[in-house]
Amino acid sequence: MSKWMWNAGLAVLALAFLGLLAGFASTAVHIRKLAGELEPAHPEEPQRRRVALISQELDNPFWRSVESGARASAGRYGMTIEYGGPRRIDPQEQSRLLEKAIAERFDAVLVQGLNEPSYAALIDRASAQGIPVITVDADEPNSARIAYVGTDNKLAGERMGRLVAQTIGGTGRIGVVLGSEAVNQKLRLEGFRSVIDRYPGLAVADVRISNISRLQAAKEAEDMLRERPGLRAIVGFSALDGPGIAEAVQRQQAASPAVFAFDDLESTRQEIRQCRIKATLVQSPVEMGEEAVALLHAYFQGERIGKVHYTGTTVLDRSALADGGGASGADCR
Q1: Does residue 130 sit in the same domain as residue 215?
Q2: pLDDT score for 322
Q3: What pLDDT does 29 receive?
Q4: N or C terminus of the chain with fewer C-beta within 10 Å?
């Protein structure tokens, strides 16, 4: 073979090798491109658990405080709170919203208990589908809820009973305004009666329902004052009742009964400053929301959690406001 032919053969082999090498490089680039398309552009963050918080009433200040606590706790534990509730108190709407949360496969649900078999059955359904439920503010003990977080409502009623008895003495008739017929309200009344019944000279003379409305609380108190003159005290067991009762008492001309309230709306504080409300029993709604979400986190981590978690109450009166700089220390006359 001539030298020219040998050189030509080598050239052909070199070109063939270069062609194969280029093809291999092109294939490798293509494979890397396909792999890049299959992989996410950025590592995904862990998926945040969605928690439905279903309130008794959408814009009720108490429930907005529960929402605030739940959101703060959710931020710490990587959860998302979706808050909802009826515009006005409506147990059927609460049930519908719970059904919707189950259908939408939320990771967990926070609800107020209704003490209704059909509602308990919905909670059982959620549990059967792997959706843990925690009751807040009012319990649903005969259900598959994993825990209750809120006031010991019977104990709170007892505390209110002692407060009223100490304030007005051991004699007199008392009117009561409940926010609704919810189980928490009934437990407060039960605890209240259990204390009042220990005093032979004290009696609960009337019980009315305000439907969580200041206007309705004022109307019920006015009717009570007209129909049952001589009441020594009127007690409101939901947040808007106290200011409504105080408004009604202010309008009537007879000797004014002592007014007692629940929770610490700014309007309630103002009525205490002006000596129109003797005292209010304050719950811990922010703590309720925080604790409920913390319990969900523990549950999702596989920890065992207790069934009942009570939050505290405190008495707020004029002297307590004075200690906090909110009112003068002078006694009301």
Answers
A1: no
A2: 84
A3: 46
A4: C
